[in-house]
Each structure stands twice: as C-alpha cells, then as structure tokens.
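Comment thread on ticket #2218

A.B. wrote:
> Attaching the input chain for the structure job we discussed in standup.
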Amino acid sequence: MKYEKIDSQLFVRNRTRFCKELKAKSLAIFNSNDIMPTNADGTMEFRQNNDIFHLSGVDQEESILVIFPDSFHAKHKEILFLKETNEHIAVWEGAKLDKEQAFETAGIKTVYWIDQFEAVLKTLMSEAEYVYLNSNEHLRANIEVETRDARFGKWIRETYPIHEYERSAPIMHNIRAIKDAVEIELIQKACDLTESALRKILKTIKPGVMEYEIEADIIHEFVRNRSRGFAYTPIIASGESACVLHYIDNNQACKDGDVILMDFGAEYGNYASDMTRCIPVNGKFTPRQKEVYNAVLRVMKAATKMLVPGNYLHEYHIEVGKLMEKELVGLGLISQEDIDNQKPEWPAYKKYFMHGTSHYLGLDVHDVGSWTTPIEAGMVFTCEPGIYIPEENLGIRLENDVLVTENGPNDLMKNIPLEADEIEALMAE
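C.D. wrote:
> Ran it. Output below, let me know if you need it in another format.
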C-alpha cells in the first residue's frame, strides 16, 4: 500500500460499534478477498474486502478476522489470522505483516497464522451459540464468482451444522454508513487529490487532445501523491459520448466546440472520492452549453441543501426530480403536456435525467447504507444531477461529495472549481 499509516484506534472504535449489535455468545468471522486470476500465471491487483478492512485495517490477502466478545479467554475476544511470511514469499512477493505489525495496524494483540485457524475455531465454536457470517448484500451487487466469504459460509455450516447463523451485513451497512472522524479525513484527502488532478488538466486540455491523454495526466497526479489510483474506472467522455452514462472507452479525440464530461475520483487509504465536471474543449462554453450547465448547477445546489438529518433518500429523489422537471421545461426540452401525460413510474424528466442524484460514499464508491431509514449526521453522499441531450451532442453532469452534519451539509469538494465562469477563467490562464 502507498498510503500513510492509518491510526489503529479507528479500527478499535469500529469493532466496538460492531460488537454492540451482536447477540450474546456470538462469534463473527470476516474473510479477506481472493486474489483473482487473469490469464496464464497473471493475477489482478489485490483489493481488500472492505468489511474486514473497516474492522481491522489489514490490507493483505489470506486474512481472517474473528470477533468473539463473550469468549471465556480474553485473548480470544479478537483474533487475526494472517499468512505467515517465509523466505520464498519474502523474496518473491515481499514480507507480510508480522505479529507486531498486525497489532500496530489493527490494535489486536492475538495473532495466529492462517494454518492454525481450524484448530482455534474448534475451541471457539464450543463456546459460541451464534455465528455471524459476512456476505455482499449491496442492493446493486451482481455476483457471478463465488467469494471467499461464500465458500467459507458453506464450509462452516457443513462442519458445524447445528449452530445458529446470523448475517453481519445489516450491522456493517449501518456502522459503515456513519463515518468516523478519521474516515472523513481520508475521504477529504481523496477529494483533495481529485482537486489537484482537475486543476492540472484544466491547463492542458485543448482541441485535438485524446481522452486517454487526460486520463493519463489524472492517474499520474494520483499515484505521485500516494493514491492507489482511480477509485473507479474513470469516464472521460467528449461530445456525444457524454450522453453514455458509463462510457469508459476514453479513446476519442476531443473536438473544438465539444464539452468533455469527466467523472473520476482518487482513492486514498481505500476510501473513495467521486467527482464529475464538464469543461469546454476550447476553453469557452457556447451560450447553449452554459445554459444547460447552469441549469444542472442550480439543481445540484438545491439538492445539496436537502442532504440533512431526518430526510429520506426516496423522498429526496422525488423532490430533486421536481427541480429537474422545472429546469427542463425552461430549457425547452419537455413541455407541460409531457408532464401532464407522463407515467408515474417514468416521469417526463427521465428522458434527459435518467439516473439517481445521490448515493452513499466511503470504502465503496457506491457505499453500503440503508435506503429505508432517515439520513443521519456522519453520512457521506454524492450529489450528481445531470442533463443528457443526444440530439445536441451534449451531456452535463456535476458532482460533489457531501458530508451530512447537524449544522447542515458540508461540501467536501467546495474548493474544487465548479462555476462555469471559474472553469473558463482557469482554462484561460
């Protein structure tokens, strides 16, 4: 990992919050992600399971976290099982965490090697009544590859069939949604790196530049500042490509007169940022481009003000839809007749604004959290309205990351250029 060491007390606090939600005599087990293959002897870059990271800070493959608050033995209340380094691994891959380093990372004193897991688990299971297993229960998850957690779930149920099994996911969704002060600092760092990259590319974009050249300049700025890289696959979409919501080819030339929609964010310490900006290739918006831009900006500013404690996300999205409806009428894109004849399940505004306005942000770009409970202080959301007009080769989306507080929304990207005039001024420098 490239990022600076994270204070282990963050993970101590996270485990404390998790334990408060467990039933008595409960054992919870979290597995790291797999190292996924590519072809031949190649592997994808390892990315830690966010739940085990949230509770331990361990950013290493073949790791298991066990939490057992009611264990008879104090040393077994929290246990890390790690891959032991040998001379071969040290030479070919680099040394793994030793026991002292694991304690410094996670604040967990009891560390065993992974090959001791089954023997230790047998002792723990003799005491436990309930076993909490982890799984990916994100609403938008589409899982085709069996995960390490899923394989483990099958094995432990077969090995210990008469224990009571519970789900960790609902607890993790709740505690991960409310960010610790250290987590907010890490997200802010990711936002700051995103700002740095945007300011850099504003000075280099001109007619003829390739979308992938812009992408290259961004990743350079991220990595040189200790980021792993992009928090998600970046979108650098010029002209008509800006109307493709998840355009990731990034292989076209940026033409004079076009607007580039850029959706990217840095990752730092495994935490994501998520930003979208639209800029004119030649440095000046046309009157129509600016008209659409400012319409989106007005919706964004009004929507941000609604990200406050007590509001519900589904009601929030309905209200944002009403704002967008008004703007689209003003732009001449929909009419009152369209609104009068719209279908409730597909309002007229969705012809030009077909996605949601906000999602949770944290360890995942589309982070976990409840959509049926009120917004609370400590949650972080994106705010990203957009208008997409294929017939005009124009797509405008603007996006910032917003921390919910008791004193109102705190825009974590408030220092990143946003106003159309400011964008033009910076490009002219």
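A.B. wrote:
> Thanks. Noting for the ticket: The domain at 8-177 is CATH 3.40.350.10 (Creatine Amidinohydrolase; Chain A, domain 1).
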